[in-house]
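Supplementary notes for students who missed Thursday's class. We covered one full example, reproduced here. Read the sequence, then the structure, then the short commentary at the end.
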Amino acid sequence: MTLTADDIDALYRSHARAMVTFFGQRTFDADAAVDLVAETFAVAIACRATCRAADVDERAAWLYGIARNQLHGWYRRGAIERRALERVGLERPPLVDADVERIEELAGLREQRRRVAALLERLPVDARTAVRMRVVEERSYSEMARTLGVSEQTIRARVSRGLRSLAGSLGVEVETGTARGGTATGAGHV
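Structure (token representation):
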């Protein structure tokens, strides 16, 4: 059965707020969270004829499958797009401070940032350094290997171990990006 405009509207009303939180907790970026919600619903509208969900729970699962795909795409293209926009001097209009604060509050980003920083400090020095260089400083593996005087394979292993340790401590499933034992549903408007 093809989803109707009313079905998509119901999905939005039921899941938009929770989805902003879902994205905010994974991107640590309120602007990106709002964009990803919009992209998720744009894909849902475009692909509604392919949805075979029989009930509300299956529709939510279908929607969050789209959301996870959008998040993975954001991770892949994020650094490239940011650099391209900077090169040509373009900038997306930012959210107003009140919007950013509200999204950060809903997603618990301040507490998450403190928690990640504390957990990062607990990592072994080599893993902590590798994660900081790769994630925070956005350095390439080859640059990191040259700087630290080790092989690129060693750097990749350190980053991987560090990120897996952080993910495990945060209760995040590395492959799916969902919180363990958590649900991906919610109610209300953004």
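Commentary. Confidence is low (pLDDT under 50) at residues 173-190. Residues 56-88 form the longest helix (33 residues). If anything here is unclear, bring it to office hours.
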